TrEMBL record:
Belongs to the MlaA family. Keywords: Lipoprotein, Signal. It comes from Paracoccus haematequi. InterPro entries: MlaA. This is Putative phospholipid-binding lipoprotein MlaA. The keyword Lipoprotein applies. The gene is mlaA.
């Protein structure tokens, strides 16, 4: 199903990871390498309008939370299922990074939630077995392998990224076991479910996202700063030691477009 995409991987990696000659600048103490700023700002304007007209309205419609008994609502079930489908790819990336412990954690989390959690709709792995998700992606794998961050990019619909992370998104799709093991229609359904889970995340953090996109004097610069700070913190590239198994809910910085 995804074999034709493999033909463009070397080209995509070469183009996206090509070095840039611009001089980085400092923004609020953060080094920013943004040689494509004019183009990035045009894409940001599109993304901002797309969020306002499409993503935010959809997110508001699915934002009904759990009931008074504390049971998960429809939004929670979609988010849980989407997150569960992302776990096999995270297992692969942890192994590629030479980190077997998070790979084992995510494998057992996937096994528990897929079986006991009704296909991932519920999260008994986290609530009953103490197995929180250990987040990772191929962008982090490239960082572990020593690939530099590259220039800042804003991608259509997907939002803020870097050259390294943009290349990682392409490879994540190709190495994800879910899409290789499922029939084409089922794979597309899984992709749609993961996309829907992002609308649920948008609903959860709606006020924060709106404050960045709609209330900032320069939403592009603000979003760029938030993304780079958050991503470097995730990858432990900002000088701060982090716990790789910490609960993501404890993070102080929310990435409105986190893929």
């Amino acid at each position: 199903m995804l074999r034709p995409l493999s033909l463009v991987v070397p080209l995509a990696l070469g183009v996206i990871l090509a070095g840039c000659t611009s001089e980085p600048v400092m923004q609020d103490g953060i080094r920013v390498n943004d040689p494509f700023e004019s183009g990035n700002r045009r894409i940001h304007a599109f993304n901002k309008g797309f969020d306002q007209r499409v993503v935010a309205p959809v997110a508001r419609r699915v934002s009904a939370g759990g009931n008074e008994a504390g049971e998960p609502g429809a939004m929670d079930l979609v988010i849980n299922a989407g997150a569960n489908l992302s776990l096999p790819g995270k297992v692969v990336n942890s192994l590629l990074q030479g980190r077997p412990e998070p790979a084992i954690r995510n494998f057992f989390r996937f096994a528990v939630n897929t079986t006991l959690g009704m296909g991932g709709l519920l999260d008994p792995a986290g609530t009953d077995f103490g197995l929180p998700e250990v987040d990772t992606d191929f962008g982090e794998t490239l960082a572990v392998w020593g690939v530099p961050e590259g220039a800042y990019l804003e991608l259509p619909v997907l939002g803020p990224s870097t050259q390294r992370d943009a290349a990682g998104k392409v490879v994540d799709l190709l190495i994800d076991p879910v899409y290789h093991l499922l029939h084409r229609d089922a794979a597309w359904a899984a992709f749609g479910l993961r996309a829907a889970s992002k609308a649920g995340d948008r609903a959860r953090f709606g006020d924060t996202v709106d404050s960045v996109l709609q209330d900032s004097a320069d939403s592009y610069a603000q979003l760029r700063l938030i993304y780079l700070m958050h991503r470097r913190h995730e990858l432990n590239q900002g000088g701060t030691e982090i716990d790789p198994y910490a609960d993501a809910a404890a993070d102080d910085v929310i990435d409105p477009y986190d893929p």
